[in-house]
Design goal:
Layout lengths: L23 H10 L7 H4 L4 H17 L10 E5 L5 E6 L2 H4 L6 H13 L8 E6 L3 H9 L4 E6 L24 E4 L3 H19 L1
Parallel strand pairs: 3-4, 4-5
Antiparallel strand pairs: 1-2, 1-3
């Protein structure tokens, strides 16, 4: 059984994304940087991008290992600015908050937009553990996200190359870079184990 997490009050990055508090993302970045035994984001700025994305993906996957017991699929996302600093963070809250829009990507981009004071995220990168669904992929296009990096591909519901590709759709009015497969096996295995446990609990 997954360990119990601390209260939401202690995890400001997991508050509902509608909360109009521009300090959420900066608090999230500070909390991520304070985790022991790992490099801080400031130490990663000058490292090769592939290594940077792997670092953030591994950090997101560690967080996902601590979630999922509340009924939400363990997916987490982070938005990095042009200097590769965390400006938005989120994990799935659809079940916990009873919010159909409570996906990790939407929470993260909402925080990033509030922190920047701009809905356009052209120079930002979103890193997420699972290929975004059509709703989230559409929101990323609308937010003018500069680049999306995802871990596990989703051939059934993924909308950045899985079942469709909204980044390359004729309706897309924005060119968005997409990199898939970062820590793909670890991300996929994590989700497979969660669904296996979930099915066992409902039998």
């Amino acid at each position: 059984m997954a360990p119990q997490e601390s209260s939401n009050a202690e995890r400001p990055y997991l508050q509902p994304y509608r909360q109009p508090n521009s300090q959420l993302a900066s608090k999230a970045a500070s909390q991520l940087a304070s985790q022991p035994d790992h490099q801080s984001p400031s130490q990663l700025v000058n490292q090769p991008l592939h290594q940077l994305y792997r670092h953030w993906m591994q950090r997101l996957l560690r967080h996902c290992n601590r979630m999922g017991h509340d009924g939400d699929i363990p997916v987490a996302a982070v938005v990095l600015d042009a200097k590769n600093r965390c400006i938005g963070w989120g994990s799935n809250r659809r079940h916990q908050a009873q919010d159909p829009l409570g996906h990790a990507e939407l929470i993260a981009i909402g925080q990033a937009a509030r922190l920047l004071g701009d809905w356009r995220l052209n120079h930002c990168t979103l890193v997420v553990t699972l290929e975004p669904c059509p709703m989230c992929a559409g929101a990323l296009v609308q937010a003018r996200m500069g680049q999306v990096v995802f871990g596990a591909p989703d051939p059934k519901r993924g909308a950045l190359g899985g079942c469709l590709d909204l980044a390359d759709h004729p309706s897309a009015h924005h060119v968005m870079g997409v990199i898939g497969g970062i820590e793909a096996e670890a991300a996929s295995q994590q989700l497979r184990l969660w669904f296996k446990r979930r099915r066992g609990q409902t039998c």
